[in-house]
């Protein structure tokens, strides 16, 4: 006999509000993606499912602009892809240079250190980006085997220029790892042309999929470093040797490694198809146009964007400074209560300083920009009137 009774909360229907997710992620699923999630399960080794995995791989190669054969989706969210990059590429004692201008450099440093790497940091405040000269200076000083950069820093809202970074890394014999979780599909990125060795992203941002399957790709040079490892990576689950085999990247018969998140991969297949139908360049342009509309609207309201230089602003996630005397949380709560719109606060260095507005994938539309601007203005006016009436 069971010793505890069924929880009463589970005997009631799930309460489920509909919200427009205009924070830094997740974005809302597109209806086609939601329909894909509801498809019946296939076995994770069935030929029809393997075909879907192959199509996912082709879609990732397209959005990354790469021909790398070691291209697949990690079962897990963006953090799992970060861990996969770290635990496969780094060995104890390897020097890694992390360009840290926000939360993602900080987290990657932490993960690299947990894998025994000798972590060196080049740091700039959130809201600023690195030049190839700054990276080259730090590389010359530290002599790393691996360099890490964040393409779309969702905590500080910066778009890191990457052209030229691969050349610097090649010149000094090191590999370049790039986090594009918040930027892929929302801003130009060319993995092969820019000489990126490891690139990863997430599913729940521009791809408008549920979190849980994270694209990643490794160059031939990254593969050579992994092949020369002295010891296996500490994680079995994220071991790229096993995953390369399960994803059909090594030319060997596929073996069971883990049960893939089947519905997540259906969703990813559909999210990639939607992006392919729109075309990568048109998708970049749509995100740029929506971001510019948003930026102009925020400035018209008298607000200040956190990132000064327009060319360094991430089109997908915009941090905007909270005016003095306004409680950011109260405004966010107002916007949620009256509009069912998510408006997030800052993260790390930007906590309490900014709101972060995400316009990604399915959600990146001029109508959503207008709705957000109206809701935000109303929320700020509401807080200001409360402050005045209490004086
Ligand atoms: C730039 C960046 N990297 C990594 C992550 C981590 O992804 P996840 O939350 O899917 O684990 C995020 C999430 O917002 C991100 O914005």
From TrEMBL:
GO terms for cellular component: peroxisome. PROSITE patterns: AA_TRANSFER_CLASS_5 (PS00595). GO terms for molecular function: alanine-glyoxylate transaminase activity; L-serine-pyruvate transaminase activity. Its cofactor is pyridoxal 5'-phosphate. GO terms for biological process: glycine biosynthetic process, by transamination of glyoxylate. The keyword Transferase applies. The modification N6-(pyridoxal phosphate)lysine is found at residue 205. Residues 43-347 form the Aminotransferase class V domain. It catalyses: glyoxylate + L-alanine = glycine + pyruvate. Keywords: Aminotransferase, Pyridoxal phosphate, Transferase. Its EC number is 2.6.1.44. It comes from the Eukaryota. Belongs to the class-V pyridoxal-phosphate-dependent aminotransferase family. This is Alanine--glyoxylate aminotransferase. It comes from Ridgeia piscesae (Tubeworm).
């Amino acid at each position: 006999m069971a010793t505890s009774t069924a929880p009463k909360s589970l005997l009631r229907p799930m309460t489920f509000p509909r919200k427009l997710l205009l924070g830094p992620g997740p974005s809302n699923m597109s209806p086609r993606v939601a329909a894909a999630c509801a498809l019946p399960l296939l076995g994770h080794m069935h030929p029809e499912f393997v075909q879907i995995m192959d199509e996912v791989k082709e879609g990732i190669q397209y959005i990354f602009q790469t021909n790398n054969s070691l291209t697949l989706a990690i079962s897990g969210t963006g953090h799992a892809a970060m861990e996969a990059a770290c635990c496969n590429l780094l060995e104890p004692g390897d020097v890694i240079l992390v360009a840290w201008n926000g939360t993602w450099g900080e987290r990657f440093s932490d993960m690299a250190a947990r894998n025994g790497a000798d972590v060196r940091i080049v740091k700039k405040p959130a809201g600023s980006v690195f030049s190839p000269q700054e990276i080259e200076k730090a590389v010359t000083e530290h002599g790393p085997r691996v360099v890490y950069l964040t393409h779309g820093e969702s905590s500080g809202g910066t778009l890191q220029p990457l052209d030229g970074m691969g050349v610097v890394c090649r010149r000094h014999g090191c590999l370049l790892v790039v986090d594009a979780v918040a930027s892929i599909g929302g801003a130009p990125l060319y993995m092969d042309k820019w000489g990126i060795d490891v690139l990863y992203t997430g599913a729940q941002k521009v791809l408008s999929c549920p979190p849980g399957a994270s694209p990643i790709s490794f160059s031939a040079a990254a593969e050579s470093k992994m092949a020369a490892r002295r010891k296996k990576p500490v994680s079995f689950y994220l071991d790229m040797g096993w995953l390369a085999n399960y994803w059909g990247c090594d030319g060997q018969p596929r073996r069971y490694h883990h049960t893939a998140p089947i519905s997540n991969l259906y969703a990813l297949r559909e999210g990639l198809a939607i992006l392919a139908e729109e075309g990568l360049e048109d998708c970049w342009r749509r995100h740029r146009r929506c971001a510019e509309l948003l930026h102009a609207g925020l400035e018209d309201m008298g607000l200040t964007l956190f990132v000064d230089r327009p060319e360094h602003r991430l089109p997908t996630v915009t941090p905007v400074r909270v005016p003095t005397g306004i409680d950011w949380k109260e405004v966010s709560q107002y916007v949620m209560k009256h509009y069912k719109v998510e408006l997030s606060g800052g993260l790390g260095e930007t906590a309490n300083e900014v709101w972060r507005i995400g316009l990604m994938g399915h959600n990146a539309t001029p109508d959503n920009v207008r709705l957000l601007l109206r809701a935000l203005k109303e929320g700020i006016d509401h807080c200001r009137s409360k402050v005045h009436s209490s004086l």
